Amino acid sequence: xxxxxxxxxxxxxxxxxxxxxxxxxxxxxxxxxxxxxxxxxxxxxxxxxxxxxxxxxxxxxxxxxxxxxxxxxxxxxxxxxxxxxxxxxxxxxxxxxxxxxxxxxxxxxxxxxxxxxxxxxxxxxxxxxxxxxxxxxxxxxxxxxxxxxxxxxxxxxxxxxxxxxxxxxxxxxxxxxxxxxxxxxxxxxxxxxxxxxxxxxxxxxxxxxxxxxxxxxxxxxxxxxxxxxxxxxxxxxx
Amino acid sequence: xxxxxxxxxxxxxxxxxxxxxxxxxxxxxxxxxxxxxxxxxxxxxxxxxxxxxxxxxxxxxxxxxxxxxxxxxxxxxxxxxxxxxxxxxxxxxxxxxxxxxxxxxxxxxxxxxxxxxxxxxxxxxxxxxxxxxxxxxxxxxxxxxxxxxxxxxxxxxxxxxxxxxxxxxxxxxxxxxxxxxxxxxxxxxxxxxxxxxxxxxxxxxxxxxxxxxxxxxxxxxxxxxxxxxxxxxxxxxxxxxxxxxxxxxxxxxxxxxxxxxxxxxxxxxxxxxxxxxxxxxxxxxxxxxxxxxxxxxxxxxxxxxxxxxxxxxxxxxxxxxxxxxxxxxxxxxxxxxxxxxxxxxxxxxxxxxxxxxxxxxxxxxxxxxxxxxxxxxxxxxxxxxxxxxxxxxxxxxxxxxxxxxxxxxxxxxxxxxxxxxxxxxxxxxxxxxxxxxxxxxxxxxxxxxxxxxxxxxxxxxxxxxxxxxxxxxx
Lengths: 238, 474
Prior knowledge:
The structure holds 2 protein chains of 2 kinds. Helices cover 24% and strands 16% of the residues of chain A. By secondary structure, chain A is an alpha+beta fold. In chain A, the strands form 3 sheets. Chain A has a 5-stranded mixed sheet with strand order 2-1-5-3-4, sandwiched between helices. In chain A, strands 6-7-10 form a 3-stranded antiparallel sheet. Chain B is globular, with a radius of gyration of 21 Å. Chain B starts with a strand and ends with a strand.
């Protein structure tokens, strides 16, 4: 595999052709904030948290879906990027009903820790306070659309790790929502294998194990990585 | 037509209240009403949430008594799951509630009420607070603050946080008492006992010098309600309901908390957002009852621990039948602190509190669950109705401050009758009215009250609705 040489934050880096800027940065020990990215499933560039500056290109590019190229100069941390990342987070908080203090994911939430990390102490936009429901019809798991940020991690892990294809996205814009099968109650889904991978992949408290109390939703993503690694490296082949 | 004095606002949970005092044509006080709107909205916006989140959500109602809400809520959750929680979990919850009793009662006594009767009613408002107490008796103030800290440390040892511990859950609790936690609490005991003794001695002196207050500050016949053990002893978490009358006779006993609605009616008055609970068999308003420390000590035959039992005997002598003066809420609070410390000491010697069998697991087995617990201010009910998936359909919270609503009205009226003269509002009257309410340590004391003053807006209104005089505070 041929290598590409690029610069990230002034550091000379060599990455494999076809790798994303995010992968190259991560391998070089440079941390870029992400939210919709999940190891083991393809990237969709949905959340815009990993936006980076590339010299010579005016618009900001998502590091997760931008491929490395010879000689590019990438900046992952700047005043401008922080401003946009904060704004993105503020819009996420304003769009649905995120109440950290009483959330099952309190203390284990990626949205919350990113907000802490970027010093987000208030939201400048008006909260929309939409009315979203909780789907607690499944035997084991629940989905609270109030806390969903539409990162589609659950959809991707359901389709591409488990292969069940239960979770999907319906609707447009702010009215988009994660659905189960043909927009049925989760408890009525025939395709759901009850594997729980969607719950493991959720960055917020939108998907949770039923019966969870405040702050109890701790995610174990190592299981997802284990499965993906084992499959890709053919560890299960005798 | 009559005149009306309005003290407004005490309208928000941060500690705002509104008081109306009605005057008759002769210029005498006819009646009074105390209004609070502290829980507006909670019952509504909890609808649709999973019941398992409720101990976390409802404790956000209050920063002083979050433990009471989280425990009553967890109990309602137990009832929905239809489980008996592991014995260790029950003991641990009780230990948490005792910590709550100690910290809240210490706050009420030392920070909020003592400045009134130790510094004097007519002290300037700027000094009539905990800082004034620090200036006049720094050792007492420090001891009181530390007693509160002791209660909060118990809460923190168990739930990781002094305020809003995410620890009690439907089915049990999340963690046991550690050896370090046990040692930490134990080290506090001698100081906690000593401070309580100082406070009890102090209040014994106050009783001698405040005979008028004993008569005027809410001294009237009423029923008393609270939880008792099966043998009629003091109870704070679990147990069943008992009602007694002002002669001390038991009129209803060992009522399952789930059946509270058969005994407690809720009258809606169009002048108040707050419902006025009353004892249903006697009707409204004859069924007026009081809850909280005074009520708990009136209904209990014994505390169940030696030192507090000795104090209870002295307390019971202050009334014929029941002890009916609301000024004695303060005394009752101190006795409950003492009992709580004694019970804490007992629990520290119990190995079961280190058990790891702490949480029962079950699905939705009952579509309705009622949980009750004795909050520092009185019996707290959480009544939930859920769907088959455990999402809340209906939430009813009956809180102590609400149950004391009618009694607070009477107290305010009684004090006003003694001190309101003519058409001017005197500072001395405002202060005494304030204290009349403070006897009950209502939940609206949360923030602004905590520095010694309730924000009040008092209006004197003529029969034609004209405002004769007005005073704002806070």
